[in-house]
Amino acid sequence: MEIQGIEGLSPDEVRSRVSQGGRFVIFTWTVSFIVMTVRRPTSVTFINPGESALLKSLPYTFVSLFFGWWGIPWGFIYTPMSIIENLGGGRDVTNEIMQSFGGVPSPPPSTSFPPPQSAEPGSAFRGEPGTMRPAPPLSEQTSLDNDAKAALYLGLGSLFCFPAGLLAAFFGIRAISRARTLGVSTPGRAIAGLSLGVAFALCTGAGVVMGALVPKTPDGTDPPPSLTRKAPVTPVPARPDDGPVAEPGNAGARLALKVVKSYPKQKPSPKPPYHVAGGDWTYLDLEGPGGVEVTFGVQFKKSAESFSFGKAELFANRAFADAFDAKFGGAPGPVKAKKPGPLAMGVAVLGQDVVRHKGGGFGNAGEGSWVATKLFPEVGDRQGEVFFNWSVDEGHAEFSEKDVDYADDLSFVFHTAFAGK
Q1: Alpha carbon distance 57, 148 (integer Å)
Q2: 19, 32, 115, 333: which is deepest, by most CB within 10 A?
Q3: SS3 of residue 3 by DSSP
Q4: Domain for residue 282, yes or no?
Q5: What is the pLDDT of residue 23?
Q6: Are 92 and 184 within one domain?
């Protein structure tokens, strides 16, 4: 494994620097080519104590910022994910890397107790639920909230004013940096404003460049359209597997499940079975070999457009996590099981009422009963992507591999969420 930043250091020196605050991180970059978007991790980089991970992430952040947006639709999904992860200091893989160095030495025990830190009145009660972690001072929270609002409003304003997009990007990045410094979640308004501002700024810039490249006649007007006739095109007969493909066919890993029961018009509930009647969600009870039991819930609007976004929930038993590892080849590493409850995640709906092709993939929109989606499971700073497709009419469902590089992250997420069930 290639690791940057430890050249010339012995294992003892590496362990010493990690105990002083050094860490190993992975950044990501995104590049789009109109019809294709590529998101890839970098090699592992060592950040010395006191060294800024943000500075080392800038090359990959700028690559994503300028070259990641130009793919439809994934450029607008992967690019903000890469930028936000890099601005947050990258993905920390210190524990995994240090296993090869024999672990991290514990700091020497201290016989004195540090003086208690002062905090604003009531700050302990504004921390995370179930903890006594002091929350940031109200002044810092207010500054973070103001930056997030400014990023959102300026991002919306970039629809009408190009410079507003640049200001939205500035306030969005500053809000993300402040949230990371305070140890709190980044406000969604900051991420939305940053994405809108950068997207419309890049689109406007591209329009200006394309306008400058359009040929002009000597008097400054556009040249007349060409009168060249196109040769007639012979129509191609339709194939059995015709139509747009929602998921590329491949020989990747798959975990097949059986649809036991469907529950339409539901809404999420905090108590088992975690859904009740009276909403616009659909829940599926699924079973698989080896005692696998899964409940999947999804919410999205059906429309003539095949692509859309929605919300999803997944609740499963330990057997599912083990079966997923057996099919996808992932290893979770050290995990701490969460208390029982659904795993909430985002979902991209890639195809509705489509036909599942024999070689994998989906097409023939409107002629089938399958729904093709992609899930984004996430726990902490570990996240992955996996296709999930189902047909209530045929009684089948499947998890299908998106990228082999996500196997370990997905294993960690599912074992953390379901190992205690």
Answers
A1: 22
A2: 32
A3: strand
A4: yes
A5: 92
A6: no
Q: Coil, helix or strand for 149?
A: helix
Banded pLDDT at 134 (limits 50, 70, 90): low
Judge whether 326 and 292 are in contact, CB under 8 Å: no
Q: Residues of the chain with pLDDT > 70: what percent?
A: 76
**Does residue 143 contact residue 178 with C-beta atoms inside 8 Å?**
yes
Alpha carbon distance 249, 223 (integer Å): 45
Q: Are residues 272 and 361 in the same domain?
A: yes
* CA atoms of 49 and 57, how far apart (whole Å): 16
- For residue 343, list its beta bridge partners: 314
- pLDDT value at position 132? 46
Q: Are residues 58 and 193 in the same domain?
A: no
DSSP assignments along 74-132, one per residue: THHHHHHHHHHHHHTT-EE-HHHHHGGGT-PPPPPP-SS-PPPPP--TTGGGGSSTTS-
Spatial distance between the Cα atoms of 209 and 416, rounded to a whole number of angstroms = 48
Q: Which of 207, 222, 237 is the last residue of a domain?
A: 207
In the chain, what is the straight-line distance between the N-terminal and C-terminal CA atoms, in Å?
Answer: 35
Q: Is residue 348 part of a domain?
A: yes
Q: Same structural domain for residues 94 and 166?
A: no
Alpha carbons 371 and 356: distance in angstroms, whole number: 9
194 and 290 housed in the same domain? no
The DSSP element (H or E) to which 265 belongs, if any, is strand 254-268
Regarding whether 325 and 413 lie in a shared domain, the answer is yes
Instruction: Please report whether residue 70 resides in a domain.
Output: yes
The answer to whether residue 247 sits within a structural domain is: no
Which range marks the domain in which residue 326 is found?
A: 254-418
Torsion angle (degrees, nearest 10) of CA 346, 351, 357, 361: -40
pLDDT of 115 above 60: no
Q: Residue 179: exposed, middle, or buried by beta-carbon count in 10 A (0-12, 13-18, 19+)?
A: buried
**Separation between Cα atoms, residue 401 and residue 398, nearest integer Å:** 10
Measuring CA to CA, which residue among 409, 291, 327 is closest to residue 417? Answer: 409
Angle at 417 between CA 413 and CA 418, to 5 degrees: 115
The answer to whether residue 361 scores a pLDDT higher than 60 is yes
The label of the residue with tokens 């940031």 reads 136
Tell me what percent of the chain is helix, strand and coil, each rounded to the nearest 5: 35, 25, 40
83 and 24, same domain (yes or no): yes
The closest alpha carbon to 389, from 409, 367, 362, 365, belongs to: 362
